[in-house]
Amino acid sequence: MKRISILALALLAACTAPTENPITEVSYDYFGDTIQVADTTSLAGLLSQLQAGTDSVYGTFAAPISSVCQVKGCWMQLDLGTGEEALVRFKDYGFFVPMDAASEMAFVEGSLTVDTLSVEWLRHQAEDAGESDSAIAAIQSPKVSFSVLAVGVALAQKERAAAEDSAPHDHSSHEH
Fewer CB within 10 A of the terminal residue: the chain, N end or C end? Predict the structure, then answer.
């Protein structure tokens, strides 16, 4: 009877043992410096430092890409999850991101900065853009703007089309 109990217990333990789930590691494509994805800081934490009055914070954080420059991939916009976006430029234009990266999660290392754009500057920009006098006059308050100067970006690996043009990009033809 003792043998049957031990055998039944062993069988029961084998049937209820937790199954191992294989851990799937994500591989990344790096643009610019190779960054440590595991060292990401909370984006909300970085933004709260900026709201507390710090002009700029440096770190590695993750955010979804909302848009990418369609000329060469020389800038991207990140969704900050607050209804606002941050314009990301790449240090010394030393690297670009794939033009098809919109909606991907980006891991970015760099300096996140908050700028307050004055009413005068916003009106001047609207004037230069050919806005109507009424649209220019409607600008009544400053605007907060976020930007990032990135030293490196990591995107989860996927099949990407090879770049057709590897020549340096002339940035004078479009605004950054």
Answer: N
Residue 77: other Cβ atoms inside 10 A: 18
* pTM for the whole structure: 0.69
DSSP-based three-state secondary structure for 98: coil
Amino acid at 3: R
Least confident of 60-69, 79-88, 127-136, 158-167: 158-167
Dump pLDDT digits (tens) for 66-122: 999 998 999 999 999 988 899 999 999 999 999 999 999 999 999 999 888 889 988
CATH architecture assigned to 27-116+144-157: Beta Barrel (2.40)
Residue count of the chain, please give it. 176
Give how far Cα 173 sits from Cα of 62, 96, 148, 169, Å.
Answer: 30, 16, 22, 10
User: CA 41 to CA 62: how far, in whole Å?
Assistant: 8
Q: Locate the domains of the chain by residue range.
A: 27-116+144-157
